[in-house]
Amino acid sequence: MSVDGRLALIALACLVEPGNRELGMLLRQHGPARALHLLLDGQQPSPALVESVHGRLETLAVHDVGRFAEEALEHAARLGARIVTPLDEEWPMQFADLARISRDDGDRQHRDTDPPVCLWVRGAPLLAEALDRSVAIVGSRAASSYGQHVAGELAYGLAMRDWTVVSGGAFGIDAAAHRATIAAGGLTVAVLACGVDKPYPVSHGGLFEQITDDGLLISEWPPGAAPYRMRFLTRNRVIAAATRGTVMVEAGARSGARNTLTHARLLHRPAMVVPGPVTSAVSVGCHAELRRPGTMLVSRFDEVIEEIGAVGELSALPQGAERPEDVLDATGQRLLDAVQVRKALSAEEIAAGAGLSGREARRTLPLLEMYGFVVATESGSYRLAPRPRTAEVTPQD
Amino acid sequence: MSVDGRLALIALACLVEPGNRELGMLLRQHGPARALHLLLDGQQPSPALVESVHGRLETLAVHDVGRFAEEALEHAARLGARIVTPLDEEWPMQFADLARISRDDGDRQHRDTDPPVCLWVRGAPLLAEALDRSVAIVGSRAASSYGQHVAGELAYGLAMRDWTVVSGGAFGIDAAAHRATIAAGGLTVAVLACGVDKPYPVSHGGLFEQITDDGLLISEWPPGAAPYRMRFLTRNRVIAAATRGTVMVEAGARSGARNTLTHARLLHRPAMVVPGPVTSAVSVGCHAELRRPGTMLVSRFDEVIEEIGAVGELSALPQGAERPEDVLDATGQRLLDAVQVRKALSAEEIAAGAGLSGREARRTLPLLEMYGFVVATESGSYRLAPRPRTAEVTPQD
After folding, report:
1. What integer pLDDT is reported at residue A72 of this predicted model?
2. If pLDDT is split at 50, 70 and 90, which confidence band does B44 have?
């Protein structure tokens, strides 16, 4: 029994849970057709994988895997979806990076991090193009109104600058990011942990329809797959790998969003976090991540672009309102501190107050007069110019 | 005319603005008595410093500097204060570190960073003892109620663990930190940018009295000195140098508290920042600092102690509530995901759903039964145990 590469990939995507490391190694070593053949024949070194594949074949009553894969294609088409494989032109190259962390990292928690074998896709844009300039915004389902507001602001700003916003379609932060992107007329992609035929959560049906109007719903699981808890963790690596960086907006101590951020870090992509009040339980995970090296705090969308964008897309630095005194150097500011409102003082008295030399005062006070900070009397003394500035005591704050 | 070292230091503290780098170098090279002599004689290489000293001598009508210093001592005593010099036993050694950044850093903004020459002190505790285990809490005068709450929580927690809380006596964060320390029965120190006789702001008179009941009011400026704007910047280095680390709670983009944090960093002391909502103008400076390398985010007092404390004073990691499923490994959790509430499934069916081998399912399901997660039927199938756990869909969050 021989199946072409593309059909083999589709069959494998239905028969093996996504991210499987043994399957990934088999695929890279033998290619899809031979990998499938070896698994069906039981001729490969992971008996657990062989057994699980045969278990699924039995449960699904599959007799001909080629026909089974063709049926999967037809079924997807009937649902208005398509299956995209690494052999197709629209496959995004960046997923390949997942194979690297899979090889490097023996950690149990990050075992199932191999690249997707296939993706079920709903929506018109080509996958690779949609994800080329993309950023992930993830966070808590139990988000506060603050978190939803900030996620929306970030997504809106990024969408306006032509960035695709990727998230998980969940309540809270995810939904706020998707919705703001749509409001900005941008492109958004929801990566699901279940089949694209029954996107979870069900009450987001309207949102999912809106997403597919211009953007994409994608999943590694075939139609019908239920959103098991562990599948969200497996799915998170796809969100991190699809994008140039991940922004976490709100996350409790145990939020799954932290797992997405960890994957971004393992992929050497920017791991960005928005802080919140330290009194908020849904920011505890954010602050814990910000205490780890390699996490960048972001508070505005242009700071996100600074991390993920090309040169020339840099953000401006935050600046407070300018004060007239900003034009002065330290000597000028110290002298100005010592000038009084009511009593005119000589240059020497002002110098003594400021702890500067009379020479410095005599050189600088005329400049202060020229800039309108002080007024000179006829006797050559100085007092503060009568204009609305806070006198004497204005510590910088 | 010859003056002893201690009196020379007191005279110099009255005649030269604090932090002066030329004076610091002169003191380290020649000692106080000779440094004063050289300045009075005009025999030292900084004509600006010589001239400013002579300007002050003239303004203050000083004819005998020895007598002048003695009068300063008497004046301080009449005010209920004392003058502490580096020659006194209660002088804190840690101020010497300021000489190092003064030498290393040619930056204009950090020119006046030499150690204090003297300190005017009000309050009973010995200065060095009070500052031995101390931490600075600084921030915006225009603090929000959030900022004041967090500053208070931090100060209270630190005071309860026997840490002295140092701040600047200003409105907002400073006041919240002082007040919470007093409420905890702890020791607090206010470092002023004006004379200890007229502590600024005037409306904090009651607070300053409370501070001196158990703690200290200290200043580098002699009684009568006004709180000029630039003096706050000069003062900030003392707050950073007195303590084992600085915590900034709220700060606008231009807050003077950022200058204190910069000094902590220059002194290689922990520079800690509490984040806030990114929508808050008084957290903009905090987030800008957190984007700089070498700044540590802190959200609780024990995280502060982790940075500044001795080994054994470590904080616990933040932990979410435990779930029963936490006892399971990934295989157990994946199997549990695939078990259903209503329909009993065979081990093979569960394995197929979970993408695991039948062998793994047959080995692990009895353990899940033992732990009470699943119930086995007589035919050897499994369904979810009837107890209040969220079924099927519970992504970690």
Report:
1. 97
2. confident
Distance of CA A331 to the CA centre of its chain: 46
Q: Which residues pair with A164 in a beta bridge?
A: A134
Q: Which residue type does A354 have? A: A
Predicted confidence (pLDDT) per residue in A61-108, tens digit? 999 999 999 999 999 999 999 999 999 999 999 999 999 886 655 554
Left, alpha or beta for B85 (phi > 0: left; psi -120 to 50: alpha)?
Answer: beta
Instruction: Output the average pLDDT for chain B.
Output: 90
CB contacts of A256 in chain B (<8 Å) are 395-397
Residue carrying the six token digits 């949609």: A130
Pairs of residues, one from chain A and one from chain B, whose beta carbons lie less than 8 Å apart: 253
% of chain B beyond a pLDDT of 90: 72
Q: Is some CB atom of chain B closer than 8 A to the CB atom of A106?
A: no
Chain B residues within 8 A of A253 when measuring between CB atoms: 318-320
Percent of chain B at pLDDT > 70 equals: 90
pTM given for the model:
0.85
* B332 near A CB under 8 A: no
Angle, CA of B370, B376 and B380, to the nearest 5°? 125
Q: B217: which residues sit within 8 A by CB, 6+ positions away?
A: B121, B122, B123, B169, B189, B190, B192, B196, B199, B208, B211
Q: What confidence tier does A392 reach under pLDDT thresholds 50, 70, 90?
A: very low
- Which amino acid makes up residue A345? L
B392 has pLDDT over 60: no
Q: Looking at the DSSP assignment, which residues form a beta bridge with residue B320? A: none
Which of B121, B303, B285 shows the shortest CA–CA distance to B211? B121
Average pLDDT over residues B290-297: 95
Q: Does A67 touch chain B (CB under 8 A)?
A: no
Instruction: Provide the pairing of β-strand A134-138 with A246-248.
Output: parallel
* pLDDT one-digit tens code per residue, A247-302: 999 999 999 999 999 999 999 999 999 999 999 999 999 999 999 999 999 999 99
Neighbours of B41 (CB within 10 A): 10
Task: Report the length, in residues, of chain A.
Answer: 397
Mutate to test the interface with B, among A46, A297, A331 (most CBs of B within 10 A): A297
Using alpha carbons only, give the angle A9, A10, A12 rounded to the nearest 5 degrees. 65
Banded model confidence at residue A333, pLDDT cuts 50, 70, 90 = confident
Give the Cα separation of B95 and B262 in Å (integer).
16
Nearest to A319 among B109, B253, B396 (CB): B253
Q: Which two tokens stand for residue A206?
A: 């309207």
Two structure tokens written together for B26? 């002169």
Judged by phi (left if over 0) then psi (alpha if -120 to 50, else beta), residue B199 lies in beta
A329 touches chain B (CB under 8 A): yes
Answer yes or no: is the ipTM higher than 0.90.
no
Dihedral of alpha carbons B285, B286, B291, B292, sign = positive
CA-closest candidate to residue B77, choices B122, B129, B42, B111: B122
- Greater model confidence, B272 or A59: B272
Question: Could you give the 3-state DSSP secondary structure of residue A329?
Answer: coil
- Torsion sign across C-alpha atoms A164, A165, A166, A169: negative
Cα–Cα distance, A10 to A34 (Å, whole number): 14
Which residues from chain B sit within 8 angstroms of residue A357, using beta carbons?
A: 47-52, 55
Q: Which residue has the tokens 């963790």?
A: A233
Q: Which residues on A lie below 8 Å from B320 (Cβ)?
A: 252-254
What is the distance, to the nearest Å, from the Cα of residue A351 to the centroid of all Cα atoms in its chain? Answer: 54
Cβ neighbours of B106 (radius 10 Å)? 8
Label residue B370 exposed, middle or buried (CB < 10 Å: 0-12, 13-18, 19+): exposed
Contact status, residue B244 vs residue B308, Cβ threshold 8 Å: yes
Q: How many angstroms separate the CA atoms of A66 and B372, rounded? A: 41
Question: Would you tell me how many other CB atoms lie within 10 Å of the CB of residue A155?
Answer: 31
